[in-house]
Write a structure and sequence with these properties.
The protein is of the alpha/beta class. Helix content is about 40%, strand content about 15%.
């Protein structure tokens, strides 16, 4: 069998941590099992916020990782912050993506980020990366590239390479929307910037040989924007990560939320429902604990800590290495996902939801009851999505799981449906895309 060579162009790669790195790290891990030779092109010095050295173990020996230095404007913002009397931060990216009330400098830097750095601050890497890769692809006889965004500048590298070599097969992977992304609202993007985003997005959708994205909602959205076929490739979970996860009886009933709580999503309705349930059920009040594993927006943290009831049962753990997260799953009783507040929340399938499925624990989602996440939870029997305006149903779901927990019944009633989302099976789908004659351009 002829080895299929493919180059993945991604900003996020270990030791970068967080959700952005998981998709292609895990796919690259399994691609060699399906006759593929993966090459990965990534920045040598990226300005990522979360570091996770434990992910390096998932990079297969067959993968060749190519790194090229990148210049990003965060250092310039970082130095300029002193002119405005701002205390320097250990994380320069915070100067643009602020949390809580914004200072004058933060407002200016956010406006610059949203209106002048289009599509994102990695735009300065596009030309040197394309120049380097044009030669590299020819030298190594690599016929296919995959660009994954955000950051969507990665797609512009693909566009340049495709224009230089029309025989190159280019697959554009959208992990999030582009012109319809709710982040543009937070970045104060004006009409000129939004028009530029739409123009660049149309070029990518028109010129890529194949377009893939992560949810059925986004498939429909990109098909409408690009007037072309778009293929679904969901996120998933790595079965290897969960081989040693053991859900054990715990002293307390632990509701765990994994991942970021930003200024968009709103867990407050869930927290209020828990508070009312505590008032109604004394046993529940004594045993419930809520643990937030990952970054939490300061305003939500302040909301919790200001409430004597909620603060007494809540723990903010911050970011943890992915390996450590596996152990924490085993110390959980109910897993929480909150989609309330996101733009187009009915089309949002966060990566953590797939890992939730792999644990076998019950899952409570707070958000649209008829969106993509609801369909997946219903199909697998793992849990339910409940509208945030229905606190009675939220309380009833929590109480039902709590009663089962009291009886030592820790597992959700899942079948084998969740195995469709294993990273290995998804890598098989990617390998099939690399076969000649599987294009979806028209």
């Amino acid at each position: 069998m002829t080895e299929k060579k493919v180059l993945i162009i991604t900003y996020y790669w270990p030791p970068s941590g967080g959700s952005g790195v998981q998709r292609w790290l895990k796919l690259v891990k399994y691609l060699p099992q399906f006759g593929c030779k993966p090459y990965v092109f990534t920045p040598e010095n990226p300005a990522f916020a979360i570091r996770d050295e434990s992910l390096l173990k998932d990079v297969p020996p067959e993968a060749e990782v190519i790194k090229l230095p990148i210049w990003e404007p965060y250092d310039a913002f970082f130095k300029m912050s002193g002119w405005f009397g701002r205390k320097k931060s250990a994380r320069p990216t915070d100067l643009v993506a602020s949390a809580g009330p914004r200072s004058l400098f933060q407002k200016i830097s956010t406006w610059v980020r949203g209106n002048m750095l289009i599509p994102d601050p990695r735009i300065f890497w596009v030309r040197p990366a394309a120049r380097y890769l044009h030669k590299y692809l020819k030298e190594h006889n690599i016929p296919t590239i995959i660009t994954t965004g955000p950051p969507h500048s990665m797609h512009l590298i693909g566009r340049r390479l495709k224009r230089k070599n029309p025989n190159l097969t280019w697959i554009a992977d959208f992990r999030d929307p582009w012109s319809e992304w709710g982040l543009l609202d937070s970045l104060m993007s004006g009409s000129f910037a939004r028009n530029q985003h739409r123009r660049l997005e149309r070029c990518v959708l028109k010129e890529a040989d194949k377009v893939i994205t992560v949810t059925p909602f986004y498939v429909r959205q990109f098909e409408h924007l690009g007037q072309r076929r778009v293929q679904l490739l969901t996120n998933g979970f790595d079965t290897d990560d969960f081989r040693e996860v053991q859900v054990r009886p715990t002293e307390n009933f632990v509701i765990r939320h994994v991942g970021i709580i930003n200024e968009k999503n709103n867990p407050r309705p869930f927290m209020q429902a828990v508070k009312v349930l505590m008032e109604e059920d004394a046993v529940f009040r004594e045993r419930v604990r809520i643990e937030f594993t990952g970054e939490v927006h300061p305003q939500f943290r302040a909301f919790v800590t200001a409430d004597p009831v909620l603060s007494g049962i809540s723990l903010f753990m911050g970011n943890v290495p992915h390996k450590e997260l596996m152990s924490l799953y085993g110390q959980s009783s109910l897993l929480l996902v909150v989609l309330t507040g996101y733009k187009d929340a009915e089309g949002y399938l966060p990566g953590k939801l797939f890992e939730y499925l792999a644990t076998g624990l019950p899952v409570l989602g707070v958000g649209p009851e008829h969106g993509d996440a609801a369909v997946m939870l219903n199909a697998t029997g793992a849990g339910a999505m409940i509208d945030d305006k229905n606190p009675a149903a939220i309380k009833a779901f929590i109480l039902n799981v709590f009663r089962h927990w009291q009886q030592g019944e820790l597992k959700a009633a899942t079948g084998n449906g969740h195995l469709l989302y294993s990273r290995k099976e998804l890598a098989r789908s990617v390998a099939a895309m690399l076969e000649p004659g599987t294009g979806n351009h028209k």
